[in-house]
Every structure is written in structure tokens, then in C-alpha cells.
Write a structure and sequence with these properties.
6-stranded antiparallel barrel; 3 helices; elongated; alpha+beta; single chain; 5-stranded antiparallel β-sheet
């Protein structure tokens, strides 16, 4: 046997003898570890069983039912528009000789805003006035000759027609001259100016001089679903707020579109609202409320307190410190509340939160109570 093999066999023998010597102690250590683990598992299991046996009351919040004012509303959105608005433009071509307003001015109806050069038109008018005088003299002479039967009726008619044509030309030219003076068509506020003195205006261009806007009263355009078409009419009151704040404004419907929009199935309405303080700006967004009817003895509950089911809706009440399920019939839904018109009475104690933790006949632990009056 070679020397390396003898060495390997010697090492194996030593390892076997060492293992046999320590085996009893290793077995004892392993047994103690298993007993300890089993004891810990039993303790956890026992604690779980104790918790299951101990149980406990479900923590809840409640509300004592009381009568409340209930309003059936239509909620909508709309746009504030001006009472009157127009782009100031020129009807004729010409150069601006004077601008008689300042941006942001409040002007009255008829106020001169802009004057356009009318020198050529005035010269034409003067020429026609001279020609008219000559035509008048000629007509008068022809009339006297006709009375003496010195001329025919036809000759007199020609002179009279010439005079009438002169008058018509003068009226036409006077109308053209009047267009060189641009006046405010109604009371309102002038917006930003887009021309300067010396600018050339032409009716064919899209350029405007300025915008004149009347915002008192303000108008509000909005729509309601078609199902409410019979619930609104001229004179219906509205309440609305704007993006600029929570201040409430009031108005009344004065015009209704005569047909339902087939694309949106809505009815378009227009209301007016006083705007003496000029707090309502055209183009602003408006949130609108229309109260259809109201009653003072309604019952309203939080939306989360009502449980939908296959056969209807139900709520949990507290009776004798235990939860009791009660079927209810609901009415109008609001943003956060639901009307209950059958199943609840004034004085009932309603569970409003912690509903997932309660069950029929289970004990409850009241954390917070709210009384509705």
C-alpha cells in the first residue's frame, strides 16, 4: 500500500471516531431546539385563539337623524357674455383725422369716437348745392312757361326731374359724409385701440378700431338636460358663482332656445344678472344652480352611509348598542348626501362610518356622534 493512501485512510478513521464521540451531544442539542420552536408556535397559536375568543366592539361614528331643508337643484355650467358688444369699424375708406376716446373709457350712446377725412366729400357736396340752385331756378322758369302754355308738359317734367335728382344726390353725399364720423352705438366701455391718428381705414380690411362692450346687465348662457325642459321657463331664478371667487350672484332666465340640441340632448337658456359693480366679466366661467323645489322636513344622510344591494338600499342603525340593518328608499342625490324618503325617522341613530366592520346584531363602540337638527 502506498504512503498517500495510508494517509487518507488515517484521516477518515479519525473523523469517524470524532463523530461517534460527539453524536449524543448533537442529538440532545437538536431535541432542545425542536422543543423550543414547538413551544413558541403553541404560544402564538394560543394568542390567536385568545384574540378570536375575546372579539370586541366595532368602532363607529353615528348621526342622529333630524329634519333638514331639502332642495332639488339643477347644476350646470355656463359662460358670461356681454349685454351688448360690437367691433368699431369704418363703413367707408379714408384717413383718420382724430380719435376722441381713451382706452377703457365709458362712453354714452352717440359719442363721437373717430373722425375720418371728408374734405373731398365736402367739396362734392358744395358743387351739388350750386347745381341745385341752378336747377331750382330752371324749374321755376319752366313752371311759369308751362302755365302760359309756352312749353310742353314734357319740357317741364325734365326740369323737375333734374331738380329731384340733385336733391337725391345731395342726400346720398350727406349720408357718406355722416359715415366719416363714427359714433358709439350704445352706452359701454371702450376696449383696446388698434389704430392711430393718420391710419387709413378701408371697409375691405378686417382691422377694427376698438371694441365697445356693455356689461350691465351681464348675460349668462348655459344648458340643462332635456328632461328638465318643462321645469324651466322665462323668469326662472338662478344662482351662480364665477372662477374669481365664492361670491354668489343672482339672475333670471329671459330667453330659451325653442328646440333641444340633438347632439347634446340639452336645452340652451340665457339669463341676465345685474352688474352695477362690474364684477362679472364677459368670457368668464360660471357654475349655475337652479332650485326646482324645496321642502323643510327632508331627511338627508351621507352618501357613504347608504349600502346598495340587489333588492334595494339599506343603512345600519344603532339600537340597544347593537347594529341593525334597515331597508330604505332613496330620493334625490346630491354631491355628498342622499335623500331618504322612506325607512328612517327623526331621532334614529344612523351609523355613518365603520360600516364594513359592523354586522347585524353586532355590538358597536361609538367614537363620534353628530346631531342633525
Amino acid at each position: 500500500m502506498s504512503k498517500p493512501i495510508k494517509s487518507i485512510l488515517t484521516v477518515l478513521v479519525i473523523l469517524i471516531i470524532t463523530g461517534l464521540a460527539f453524536y449524543p451531544r448533537l442529538k440532545e442539542y437538536t431535541a432542545k431546539k425542536d422543543e423550543k420552536a414547538a413551544g413558541t408556535t403553541g404560544a402564538v397559536s394560543g394568542a390567536g385563539q385568545g384574540a378570536a375568543k375575546g372579539g370586541g366592539s366595532a368602532p363607529i361614528n353615528i348621526m342622529v337623524i333630524g329634519n333638514q331643508r331639502l332642495e332639488e337643484k339643477i347644476l350646470s355650467t355656463g359662460t358670461i357674455i356681454a349685454n351688448e358688444e360690437v367691433d368699431i369699424r369704418s363703413e367707408i375708406a379714408g384717413r383718420i383725422t382724430s380719435i376722441n376716446f381713451k382706452e377703457g373709457d365709458y362712453v354714452k350712446k352717440g359719442t363721437v369716437l373717430v373722425r375720418i377725412n371728408d374734405a373731398d366729400l365736402q367739396a362734392q357736396l358744395l358743387k351739388l348745392q350750386y347745381q341745385k340752385k341752378l336747377a331750382e331756378v330752371n324749374e321755376e322758369r319752366q313752371k311759369k312757361l308751362l302755365e302760359k302754355e309756352a312749353i310742353s308738359q314734357r319740357d317741364y317734367d325734365i326740369s323737375l326731374t333734374n331738380l329731384n335728382s340733385m336733391n337725391a344726390d345731395i342726400e346720398n353725399l350727406s349720408a357718406q359724409i355722416a359715415k366719416t364720423v363714427i359714433r358709439a352705438p350704445f352706452d359701454g366701455t371702450i376696449g383696446l385701440r388698434y389704430v392711430s391718428e393718420g391710419s387709413y381705414l378701408s371697409p375691405g380690411t378686417v382691422a377694427k378700431i376698438a371694441t365697445l362692450t356693455n356689461t350691465n346687465p351681464a348675460k349668462i348662457d348655459f344648458s340643462v338636460p332635456a328632461k328638465y325642459a318643462t321645469n324651466v321657463s322665462k323668469g326662472t331664478a338662478i344662482t351662480f358663482t364665477t372662477e374669481s371667487g365664492d361670491e354668489k350672484f343672482y339672475g333670471r332666465v329671459y330667453a330659451i332656445e325653442p328646440k333641444i340640441d340633438p347632439n347634446t340632448r340639452t336645452l340652451t337658456l340665457r339669463a341676465t344678472s345685474p352688474n352695477n359693480g362690474r364684477k362679472l366679466f364677459p368670457g368668464s366661467f360660471a357654475r349655475i344652480e337652479i332650485v326646482l323645489n324645496s321642502k323643510s322636513n327632508g331627511i338627508l344622510v351621507p352618501t357613504e352611509a347608504v349600502i346598495p344591494g340587489l333588492k334595494g338600499h339599506s343603512v345600519f342603525l344603532v339600537r340597544n348598542n347593537k347594529a341593525e340593518s334597515v331597508e330604505v328608499e332613496i330620493g334625490t342625490r346630491g354631491d355628498r348626501t342622499i335623500e331618504i324618503y322612506k325607512g328612517l325617522h327623526v331621532g334614529d341613530t344612523l351609523i355613518t362610518s365603520g360600516i364594513l366592520q359592523v354586522k347585524q346584531g353586532g355590538e358597536v363602540d361609538i367614537k363620534e356622534a353628530i346631531v342633525k337638527q
